Amino acid sequence: MTTPSTRLPAALRTEALEQLLTERGLVDPTVMDKFITTYETQVGPLNGAKVVARAWTDPAYKQRLLAEGTTAIKEFGFSGPQGEHIVVVENTAKTHNVVVCSLCSCYPWPVLGLPPSWYKDPAYRARVVREPRTILAEMGLPLDDDVEIIVRDSSSEVRWMVLPERPAGTEHLTEEQLVPLITRDAMVGVAKVSAPEAAK
Amino acid sequence: MTAPLPIDGPAAPPRANGELLFAEPWQSRAFGMVVTLHGSGAFAWPQFQAALIDRIRIWETSHPEGECWDYYQHWLGALEDVLAADGTVFADEIELRARELANRPAGHDH
């Protein structure tokens, strides 16, 4: 793969490729701009947070979500590339799921947006498989030894998403009030959701 | 429980992703080309995914000492591989055009 051509700056190669594809009618730059803007401004972890808040407050929805992730998520209108086979797994006090794509960067775009850089980093991808407890502790999530950790590798067709545990002290909150508490990292399984300070 | 401490800063919704999606403009164009081409049926996602896995594996097993990880380089490389494999655009065409672009006079901007 290391031909001399790969040493040209990526910005130039990208511009060249875009020109060629546009000239050949294969890419319409305005369509492309729309895709980019959509992912930059609309598709992000807020989508997933809405799904999680619904699951926390509506037992029937939770059941659907755990049984048929993609279909239940579509009820919100969230779909698209990397959303065809979303499987949602539930974190509890005794079982902790954490998501990785050990071979590349597969990630459930419709609910979480594009992955953060640490998710794509070779260190995270290799280490979370080998020593999940250690890397989770390093990321600020020390887990007791009696908590079972399950590493969910997204490199097949499946895109995993974690349904985090609803924190104690949030029983009085509504679905809408729960949404802002739910972080991207909790839905990847490298963090837990915390109750708001006032609720503690 | 301690507060979540993601290594790249807090990432609570509704922020787009808690960090810049694209560190440089070319990365967003490379991303956009793949999504647009896939959207118009130019290739199936598993084709691109397999090319990306190959690019990443090759880099991880044999990158030059000291060369930093650059995810979107692999993303772009995978796109080039997919397009070359089905005869849509070949690497030498890209290189030729890129060299023309490199030779533009300074201040060419559109």
UniProtKB/TrEMBL annotation, chain A:
<dbReference type="GO" id="GO:0046914">
    <property type="term" value="F:transition metal ion binding"/>
</dbReference>
<keyword id="KW-0479">Metal-binding</keyword>
<dbReference type="InterPro" id="IPR004232">
    <property type="entry name" value="CN_Hdrtase_a/SCN_Hdrlase_g"/>
</dbReference>
<dbReference type="InterPro" id="IPR018141">
    <property type="entry name" value="Nitrile_hydratase_asu"/>
</dbReference>
<protein>
    <recommendedName>
        <fullName>nitrile hydratase</fullName>
        <ecNumber>4.2.1.84</ecNumber>
    </recommendedName>
</protein>
<feature type="binding site">
    <location>
        <position position="105"/>
    </location>
    <ligand>
        <name>Fe(3+)</name>
    </ligand>
</feature>
<keyword id="KW-0456">Lyase</keyword>
<feature type="domain" description="Nitrile hydratase alpha/Thiocyanate hydrolase gamma">
    <location>
        <begin position="11"/>
        <end position="191"/>
    </location>
</feature>
<feature type="binding site">
    <location>
        <position position="106"/>
    </location>
    <ligand>
        <name>Fe(3+)</name>
    </ligand>
</feature>
<keyword id="KW-0408">Iron</keyword>
<feature type="binding site">
    <location>
        <position position="101"/>
    </location>
    <ligand>
        <name>Fe(3+)</name>
    </ligand>
</feature>
<feature type="binding site">
    <location>
        <position position="104"/>
    </location>
    <ligand>
        <name>Fe(3+)</name>
    </ligand>
</feature>
<dbReference type="Pfam" id="PF02979">
    <property type="entry name" value="NHase_alpha"/>
</dbReference>
<dbReference type="GO" id="GO:0018822">
    <property type="term" value="F:nitrile hydratase activity"/>
</dbReference>
<dbReference type="InterPro" id="IPR036648">
    <property type="entry name" value="CN_Hdrase_a/SCN_Hdrase_g_sf"/>
</dbReference>
<dbReference type="InterPro" id="IPR023900">
    <property type="entry name" value="CN_Hdrtase_asu/SCN_Hdrlase_gsu"/>
</dbReference>
<comment type="similarity">
    <text>Belongs to the nitrile hydratase subunit alpha family.</text>
</comment>
Automatic annotation (TrEMBL), chain B:
<feature type="domain" description="Nitrile hydratase beta subunit-like N-terminal">
    <location>
        <begin position="18"/>
        <end position="104"/>
    </location>
</feature>
<dbReference type="InterPro" id="IPR042262">
    <property type="entry name" value="CN_hydtase_beta_C"/>
</dbReference>
<dbReference type="InterPro" id="IPR023808">
    <property type="entry name" value="Nitrile_Hydratase_acc_put"/>
</dbReference>
<dbReference type="InterPro" id="IPR049054">
    <property type="entry name" value="CN_hydtase_beta-like_N"/>
</dbReference>
<dbReference type="Pfam" id="PF21006">
    <property type="entry name" value="NHase_beta_N"/>
</dbReference>
<protein>
    <recommendedName>
        <fullName>Nitrile hydratase beta subunit-like N-terminal domain-containing protein</fullName>
    </recommendedName>
</protein>
<dbReference type="InterPro" id="IPR008990">
    <property type="entry name" value="Elect_transpt_acc-like_dom_sf"/>
</dbReference>
